[in-house]
# Entry
Amino acid sequence: MHEFFERVDNAFGMIKADTKWNTFTINAVKLLGVNKLVESYIPPFDSDAQAPITAQKMSAEQGKTVTAEEVKAMWKRKAKISTELGVRVHSYIEAAMANKFYRYDDASIKEAFPNDTEDPIRERYNRIILQVDQFRESIRGKLIPVVSEQVIGSPKYMVCGIVDQIFWNKKANEFQIWDWKSNEKFNLDSNFKFNPPFGHLANCEYHKYSMQLCMYKHLFTEATGIPIGKCYLCWFSSEAPTQQMFPVQDFSNEVTQMLAMRAQQLGLVDQGSVF
# Structure
Protein backbone atom coordinates (compact mmCIF):
# COMPACT_ATOMS: atom_id res chain seq x y z
CA MET A 1 0.00 0.00 0.00
CA HIS A 2 2.94 2.34 0.57
CA GLU A 3 3.59 2.27 -3.20
CA PHE A 4 0.02 3.50 -3.78
CA PHE A 5 0.56 6.59 -1.63
CA GLU A 6 4.00 7.23 -3.09
CA ARG A 7 2.59 7.23 -6.61
CA VAL A 8 -0.33 9.43 -5.61
CA ASP A 9 1.95 11.93 -3.91
CA ASN A 10 4.29 12.03 -6.90
CA ALA A 11 1.34 12.59 -9.24
CA PHE A 12 -0.68 15.15 -7.29
CA GLY A 13 1.54 16.45 -4.50
CA MET A 14 2.35 19.64 -6.38
CA ILE A 15 -1.31 20.68 -6.53
CA LYS A 16 -2.40 23.17 -3.87
CA ALA A 17 -6.07 22.94 -2.89
CA ASP A 18 -8.07 25.67 -1.19
CA THR A 19 -11.11 23.73 -0.01
CA LYS A 20 -12.83 26.83 1.36
CA TRP A 21 -13.08 28.37 -2.10
CA ASN A 22 -12.82 25.07 -4.00
CA THR A 23 -9.84 26.31 -6.03
CA PHE A 24 -6.68 24.52 -7.13
CA THR A 25 -3.31 25.81 -8.30
CA ILE A 26 0.03 24.53 -9.60
CA ASN A 27 2.88 27.01 -9.15
CA ALA A 28 0.28 29.71 -8.46
CA VAL A 29 -1.50 28.97 -11.76
CA LYS A 30 -5.20 28.31 -11.27
CA LEU A 31 -6.66 25.05 -12.58
CA LEU A 32 -10.16 24.50 -13.97
CA GLY A 33 -12.37 22.38 -11.74
CA VAL A 34 -13.42 19.05 -13.26
CA ASN A 35 -17.01 19.93 -12.37
CA LYS A 36 -16.69 23.23 -14.26
CA LEU A 37 -15.26 21.47 -17.29
CA VAL A 38 -18.20 19.06 -17.39
CA GLU A 39 -20.73 21.83 -16.71
CA SER A 40 -19.34 23.85 -19.63
CA TYR A 41 -21.13 21.33 -21.87
CA ILE A 42 -24.45 21.71 -20.03
CA PRO A 43 -26.92 24.48 -20.94
CA PRO A 44 -27.00 27.00 -18.05
CA PHE A 45 -30.19 27.36 -16.05
CA ASP A 46 -31.95 30.59 -17.09
CA SER A 47 -33.39 31.81 -13.80
CA ASP A 48 -34.66 35.06 -15.33
CA ALA A 49 -36.78 33.12 -17.81
CA GLN A 50 -37.89 30.34 -15.47
CA ALA A 51 -38.67 32.38 -12.34
CA PRO A 52 -41.83 34.08 -13.76
CA ILE A 53 -43.13 30.69 -14.96
CA THR A 54 -42.59 29.11 -11.56
CA ALA A 55 -44.07 32.16 -9.82
CA GLN A 56 -47.23 31.91 -11.91
CA LYS A 57 -47.57 28.21 -11.12
CA MET A 58 -47.00 28.74 -7.39
CA SER A 59 -49.49 31.63 -7.32
CA ALA A 60 -52.18 29.36 -8.79
CA GLU A 61 -51.39 26.55 -6.37
CA GLN A 62 -51.23 28.74 -3.26
CA GLY A 63 -54.06 31.13 -4.13
CA LYS A 64 -51.88 34.18 -3.57
CA THR A 65 -49.43 36.22 -5.58
CA VAL A 66 -45.88 34.91 -5.68
CA THR A 67 -43.37 37.13 -7.47
CA ALA A 68 -40.46 36.09 -9.63
CA GLU A 69 -38.09 37.73 -7.15
CA GLU A 70 -39.55 35.64 -4.34
CA VAL A 71 -38.98 32.52 -6.42
CA LYS A 72 -35.36 33.50 -7.05
CA ALA A 73 -34.87 34.10 -3.32
CA MET A 74 -36.39 30.67 -2.61
CA TRP A 75 -34.03 29.01 -5.09
CA LYS A 76 -31.05 30.84 -3.60
CA ARG A 77 -31.99 29.73 -0.10
CA LYS A 78 -32.46 26.10 -1.20
CA ALA A 79 -29.05 26.16 -2.87
CA LYS A 80 -27.44 27.53 0.28
CA ILE A 81 -29.14 24.92 2.47
CA SER A 82 -28.01 22.17 0.10
CA THR A 83 -24.43 23.45 0.16
CA GLU A 84 -24.25 23.81 3.94
CA LEU A 85 -25.82 20.38 4.42
CA GLY A 86 -23.43 18.80 1.91
CA VAL A 87 -20.38 20.27 3.64
CA ARG A 88 -21.41 18.83 6.99
CA VAL A 89 -22.42 15.44 5.63
CA HIS A 90 -19.09 15.13 3.80
CA SER A 91 -17.22 16.15 6.95
CA TYR A 92 -19.08 13.54 8.98
CA ILE A 93 -18.34 10.79 6.44
CA GLU A 94 -14.66 11.74 6.18
CA ALA A 95 -14.32 11.58 9.97
CA ALA A 96 -16.29 8.33 10.15
CA MET A 97 -14.07 6.64 7.55
CA ALA A 98 -11.08 7.49 9.74
CA ASN A 99 -12.93 6.31 12.88
CA LYS A 100 -12.96 9.84 14.21
CA PHE A 101 -15.69 11.92 15.84
CA TYR A 102 -17.27 14.84 14.00
CA ARG A 103 -18.97 17.55 16.05
CA TYR A 104 -21.85 19.36 14.38
CA ASP A 105 -21.10 23.09 14.56
CA ASP A 106 -24.22 24.96 15.68
CA ALA A 107 -22.41 28.31 15.69
CA SER A 108 -21.49 28.08 12.01
CA ILE A 109 -25.13 27.37 11.14
CA LYS A 110 -26.27 30.48 12.98
CA GLU A 111 -23.61 32.43 11.13
CA ALA A 112 -24.77 31.05 7.78
CA PHE A 113 -28.48 31.66 8.51
CA PRO A 114 -28.56 34.66 10.89
CA ASN A 115 -32.27 35.40 10.32
CA ASP A 116 -33.48 31.86 11.09
CA THR A 117 -34.85 31.13 14.55
CA GLU A 118 -34.38 27.38 13.99
CA ASP A 119 -31.61 25.36 12.37
CA PRO A 120 -32.82 24.69 8.77
CA ILE A 121 -30.39 21.80 8.30
CA ARG A 122 -30.11 19.77 11.51
CA GLU A 123 -33.19 17.57 11.04
CA ARG A 124 -32.14 16.49 7.53
CA TYR A 125 -28.56 16.05 8.71
CA ASN A 126 -29.62 13.76 11.57
CA ARG A 127 -31.60 11.52 9.23
CA ILE A 128 -28.77 11.35 6.71
CA ILE A 129 -26.03 10.41 9.19
CA LEU A 130 -28.16 7.46 10.27
CA GLN A 131 -27.96 6.28 6.66
CA VAL A 132 -24.22 6.92 6.66
CA ASP A 133 -23.79 4.75 9.74
CA GLN A 134 -25.90 2.00 8.14
CA PHE A 135 -23.77 2.22 5.01
CA ARG A 136 -20.53 1.97 6.99
CA GLU A 137 -21.81 -1.12 8.76
CA SER A 138 -22.87 -2.72 5.47
CA ILE A 139 -19.41 -2.32 3.91
CA ARG A 140 -17.41 -3.42 6.93
CA GLY A 141 -14.86 -6.02 5.88
CA LYS A 142 -15.78 -5.52 2.21
CA LEU A 143 -14.66 -2.02 1.30
CA ILE A 144 -11.44 -0.84 2.94
CA PRO A 145 -11.08 2.94 3.17
CA VAL A 146 -7.81 3.96 1.53
CA VAL A 147 -8.01 7.75 1.37
CA SER A 148 -10.70 10.41 1.71
CA GLU A 149 -10.89 13.78 -0.04
CA GLN A 150 -8.15 12.92 -2.52
CA VAL A 151 -7.00 15.67 -4.89
CA ILE A 152 -6.82 14.44 -8.50
CA GLY A 153 -5.67 16.71 -11.27
CA SER A 154 -3.57 17.13 -14.39
CA PRO A 155 -0.97 19.80 -15.16
CA LYS A 156 -1.31 18.67 -18.79
CA TYR A 157 -5.01 19.50 -19.08
CA MET A 158 -4.95 22.09 -16.27
CA VAL A 159 -7.95 20.52 -14.53
CA CYS A 160 -8.39 19.36 -10.96
CA GLY A 161 -10.89 18.30 -8.32
CA ILE A 162 -11.37 16.20 -5.19
CA VAL A 163 -12.85 12.71 -4.99
CA ASP A 164 -14.71 11.85 -1.81
CA GLN A 165 -13.36 8.36 -1.23
CA ILE A 166 -11.06 5.72 -2.67
CA PHE A 167 -11.81 2.21 -1.39
CA TRP A 168 -10.10 -1.13 -1.84
CA ASN A 169 -12.81 -3.66 -2.72
CA LYS A 170 -11.64 -6.98 -1.23
CA LYS A 171 -13.98 -9.18 -3.27
CA ALA A 172 -13.37 -7.45 -6.61
CA ASN A 173 -9.68 -7.02 -5.78
CA GLU A 174 -9.60 -3.46 -7.09
CA PHE A 175 -9.44 0.19 -6.11
CA GLN A 176 -12.74 2.05 -6.51
CA ILE A 177 -13.77 5.70 -6.45
CA TRP A 178 -16.94 6.60 -4.55
CA ASP A 179 -18.72 9.93 -4.42
CA TRP A 180 -21.19 11.06 -1.74
CA LYS A 181 -24.30 13.03 -2.70
CA SER A 182 -26.87 14.59 -0.41
CA ASN A 183 -28.84 16.56 -3.02
CA GLU A 184 -32.55 17.02 -2.48
CA LYS A 185 -33.07 15.27 -5.83
CA PHE A 186 -31.05 12.78 -7.87
CA ASN A 187 -32.56 12.29 -11.32
CA LEU A 188 -31.50 9.30 -13.40
CA ASP A 189 -32.79 10.74 -16.67
CA SER A 190 -34.06 13.94 -18.24
CA ASN A 191 -35.66 15.23 -21.42
CA PHE A 192 -32.96 17.88 -21.52
CA LYS A 193 -29.53 17.11 -22.97
CA PHE A 194 -25.87 18.10 -22.78
CA ASN A 195 -24.58 20.46 -25.43
CA PRO A 196 -22.92 18.99 -28.57
CA PRO A 197 -20.94 16.86 -29.06
CA PHE A 198 -22.46 15.17 -26.00
CA GLY A 199 -26.11 15.64 -26.91
CA HIS A 200 -26.76 11.93 -26.38
CA LEU A 201 -26.30 12.43 -22.61
CA ALA A 202 -29.22 13.44 -20.42
CA ASN A 203 -28.81 16.65 -18.43
CA CYS A 204 -29.45 14.93 -15.11
CA GLU A 205 -27.55 14.35 -11.89
CA TYR A 206 -26.72 10.75 -12.77
CA HIS A 207 -25.07 11.51 -16.10
CA LYS A 208 -23.34 14.68 -14.90
CA TYR A 209 -21.80 13.02 -11.86
CA SER A 210 -20.96 9.87 -13.83
CA MET A 211 -19.04 12.01 -16.31
CA GLN A 212 -17.13 13.66 -13.46
CA LEU A 213 -16.15 10.36 -11.83
CA CYS A 214 -15.10 8.89 -15.18
CA MET A 215 -12.93 11.96 -15.62
CA TYR A 216 -11.32 11.43 -12.21
CA LYS A 217 -10.77 7.74 -12.97
CA HIS A 218 -9.06 8.61 -16.27
CA LEU A 219 -6.86 11.33 -14.76
CA PHE A 220 -5.91 9.20 -11.76
CA THR A 221 -4.77 6.20 -13.77
CA GLU A 222 -3.03 8.36 -16.39
CA ALA A 223 -1.02 10.13 -13.69
CA THR A 224 -0.29 7.23 -11.32
CA GLY A 225 -0.44 4.11 -13.47
CA ILE A 226 -2.76 2.60 -10.85
CA PRO A 227 -5.91 1.11 -12.40
CA ILE A 228 -9.29 1.97 -10.91
CA GLY A 229 -12.13 -0.53 -11.16
CA LYS A 230 -15.78 0.40 -10.82
CA CYS A 231 -16.92 3.78 -9.54
CA TYR A 232 -20.07 4.47 -7.54
CA LEU A 233 -22.36 7.34 -6.62
CA CYS A 234 -23.93 7.02 -3.19
CA TRP A 235 -26.97 9.22 -2.57
CA PHE A 236 -27.96 9.95 1.02
CA SER A 237 -31.45 11.45 1.10
CA SER A 238 -33.31 12.60 4.20
CA GLU A 239 -36.55 11.57 2.50
CA ALA A 240 -35.52 7.94 1.89
CA PRO A 241 -35.24 5.05 4.38
CA THR A 242 -31.73 4.16 3.27
CA GLN A 243 -28.96 5.27 0.95
CA GLN A 244 -29.05 4.45 -2.74
CA MET A 245 -25.96 3.33 -4.67
CA PHE A 246 -25.56 3.80 -8.41
CA PRO A 247 -22.74 2.29 -10.47
CA VAL A 248 -21.24 5.04 -12.60
CA GLN A 249 -22.04 4.97 -16.31
CA ASP A 250 -19.03 4.21 -18.50
CA PHE A 251 -18.35 7.51 -20.23
CA SER A 252 -14.68 6.77 -20.91
CA ASN A 253 -15.03 7.59 -24.61
CA GLU A 254 -16.75 10.89 -23.81
CA VAL A 255 -14.03 11.74 -21.27
CA THR A 256 -11.29 11.09 -23.84
CA GLN A 257 -13.11 13.35 -26.31
CA MET A 258 -13.67 16.08 -23.72
CA LEU A 259 -10.00 16.08 -22.70
CA ALA A 260 -8.94 16.17 -26.35
CA MET A 261 -11.05 19.30 -26.84
CA ARG A 262 -9.60 20.73 -23.62
CA ALA A 263 -6.09 20.15 -25.01
CA GLN A 264 -7.07 21.98 -28.20
CA GLN A 265 -8.38 24.90 -26.13
CA LEU A 266 -5.03 25.06 -24.36
CA GLY A 267 -3.19 24.94 -27.69
CA LEU A 268 -1.50 21.64 -26.91
CA VAL A 269 -2.41 20.00 -30.23
CA ASP A 270 -3.45 20.95 -33.74
CA GLN A 271 -7.19 21.06 -34.40
CA GLY A 272 -6.90 17.97 -36.58
CA SER A 273 -5.02 15.85 -34.05
CA VAL A 274 -6.66 12.85 -32.49
CA PHE A 275 -5.81 11.49 -29.03
